[in-house]
Design a protein that fits this description.
- With 176 residues, the protein is mainly beta.
- The chain has one domain: L,D-transpeptidase catalytic domain-like.
- The protein contains one helix and 15 strands; from the N terminus they run ββββββββββββββαβ.
- The strands form four sheets. Strands 3-2-1-15-6 form a five-stranded mixed sheet, with no helix packed on it.
- The two termini are 23 Å apart.
C-alpha cells in the first residue's frame, strides 16, 4: 500500500479460538497478534482480551530515538523515558497517559522490546473512561513470533509502515 487517500476502514478478524487474526485494509491482508484471551465484546481490565467493536485512532505515539517522526493524518506525539499509561481502575487518570514515576498502576511506554516504537491509540474506553472496562488498547508492533498481546492488536513493522501514512481520525478500525 502506498501513501494516498486516507483509509476509510481497517478490519481485524480473529481466527476462531486463537490469539491471532488477519488485518485487512484497502486490499492488503496481514497477520496480526491479538489478546491472549482472544476477542470479546465484554472487555474487562486485565482479562487479556482484545475488545470487539468499531474504534477510531486518536493519536500516534512514537519513539524518536528509534524511528523518524511518522507522516500520518493523526496527531503525533514523541514519547520519552518518562511516558506511561495509567491502568489502575481506581485512579483518576485511568486509561490516560501519565508521567513517570507515577504512584498508580501503569504501563511504561518506553520499552526495550520495540513493541511501542510506533503506537496507534484507539478510542476504546476513553470518553469517558469507565473504571475496570479496560485500558491501553493500542494498535502497535507485534513481537517477531506474533506472541499474543495483553489486549491490543499487534502487526509487523512492515505492515505498520504501510498503514501509518494512510491513517486519519476518521478511519474506522473494526475488530471482530
Amino acid at each position: 500500500m502506498t501513501a494516498g487517500a486516507p483509509l476509510a476502514r481497517i478490519d481485524v478478524v480473529a481466527a476462531h479460538g486463537t490469539a491471532h487474526g488477519v488485518l485487512s485494509a484497502a486490499g492488503i491482508f496481514v497477520r496480526c497478534a491479538l489478546g491472549r484471551a482472544g476477542v470479546t465484546p465484554w472487555k474487562r481490565e486485565g482479562d487479556g482480551a482484545t475488545p470487539a467493536g468499531s474504534f477510531q485512532p486518536v493519536a500516534l505515539l512514537y519513539r524518536p530515538d528509534r524511528v523518524p517522526r511518522p507522516r500520518t493524518g493523526l496527531p503525533v506525539t514523541a514519547i520519552d523515558p518518562d511516558a506511561g499509561w495509567c491502568d489502575d481502575p481506581a485512579d483518576r487518570a485511568y486509561n490516560r497517559p501519565v508521567r513517570l514515576p507515577y504512584a498508580g498502576s501503569h504501563e511504561r511506554l518506553w520499552r526495550s522490546d520495540r513493541l511501542y516504537d510506533l503506537v496507534i491509540v484507539l478510542d476504546y474506553n476513553l470518553a469517558p473512561a469507565i473504571a475496570g472496562k479496560g485500558s491501553a488498547i493500542f494498535l502497535h508492533l507485534a513481537r517477531p513470533d506474533f506472541e499474543p498481546t495483553a489486549g491490543c492488536v499487534g502487526v509487523s513493522p512492515a505492515a505498520m509502515a504501510r498503514l501509518v501514512p494512510r491513517l486519519a481520525l476518521s478511519t474506522a478500525i473494526i475488530i471482530r
